[in-house]
Amino acid sequence: MEIEEILKELEYGRGYFPYEAVQEAIRRKEEIIPELIKILEYTEKNIHKIENDPDYVAHMFAMSLLAQFREKRAYPLVVKIFSYPGETPWRIVGDFVIDYLPRVLASLSSGDTTLIKQLIENRKVDEYVRAGALEALLILVINGQMSREELIDYFKSLIREKLERKPSLIWVNLALFSSYLCAEELYEDIKLAYQEGLIEPLFFSMEDFDEYLAKGWEKSLEELKSERDYRFIEDTVECMRGYGCFEPERETDFNTLYLPEPQLERRKIGRNEPCPCGSGKKYKKCCGLLED
Fold first, then answer.
1. Which of 95, 102, 154, 244 could make an S-S bridge to 135, C-beta 3.0–4.6 Å?
2. 8 Å CB contact between 18 and 47
3. Residue 274 C-alpha from the chain's centroid
4. Residue 110 backbone class (left: φ over 0; alpha: ψ -120 to 50; beta: rest)
């Protein structure tokens, strides 16, 4: 395939995954990188146009491929794209925000956390984007590009100074990730956040926090390393082939899951258990984020 053919195949969702085009893009890495950078530049400059073009997916392929290539030039562009306020990120990438953005940011950063932290601290940015940026920092720790101590210190600065004290997914992730890090030094801060109503205990409770502290950092790290969600992007095919626009029937079925249903008896669901709604996603990536 010629470069132009690859780019054309990756431009719009066609109801199938373009395996050949993605594999050819990977094979011709050096030739395709400048074109992928141009796609991100176009996206950043024309983001409101792309909001109204839901079948356009070139920017998602560009982000995933450039993350696989560890292309540093893409890092500030991705951050700019997701720095747009309100629902703009959701309109241009949908669930990519939850499913892939943390891994993309971590993969592109090469351990430079400056721009990721800017996303986290930008109060105009969508809370799911900010929470995803927080997860990107955890991925860097798990993969040895940031120290556990450095992240705990940063969490401390968020909790005590930089983060607005109102309920949000960011506070939930702070509690969750602090527990993964077995950050005993943040225990009282997290406890106070619960007392202030900043964290919904149905998502994650102090009892859950205690369980992770008892487990210890070495065991927690071992478990986290085994999870795909906390790895750098190594294979765009593996990363994106299950995305909704390539499996329209599955996407339609998934959408019907949110019709009103009789409320089920609540039980504690593990963060890595399959979501009981039947989407095939982990609970933490599905109804665990959507519940009120």
1. 102
2. no
3. 18
4. left
CB 77 within 8 A of CB 104: no
Using CA atoms, how far residue 66 sits from 19, 38, 117, in Å, is 16, 12, 20
Q: Which two tokens stand for residue 6?
A: 């690859």
Residue 117 to residue 148: CA distance in whole angstroms:
16
**Taking the CB of residue 270, how many other CB atoms lie within 10 A of it?**
11
How far apart CA 210 and CA 199 sit, in angstroms, is 16
Q: Are the C-beta atoms of residues 154 and 121 closer than 8 Å to each other?
A: no
The whole-angstrom distance between residue 40's C-alpha and the CA centroid of its chain comes to 18
DSSP string, 93-155: HTTHHHHTHHHHHHHHHTT--HHHHHHHH-TTB-HHHHHHHHHHHHHHHHTTSS-HHHHHHHH
Tens of pLDDT along 117-170? 999 999 999 999 999 999 999 999 999 999 999 999 999 999 999 999 999 999
pTM greater than 0.70 (yes/no): yes
Whose tokens are 């950050």? That residue is 183
Q: Is 84 left (phi over 0), alpha (psi -120 to 50) or beta?
A: beta
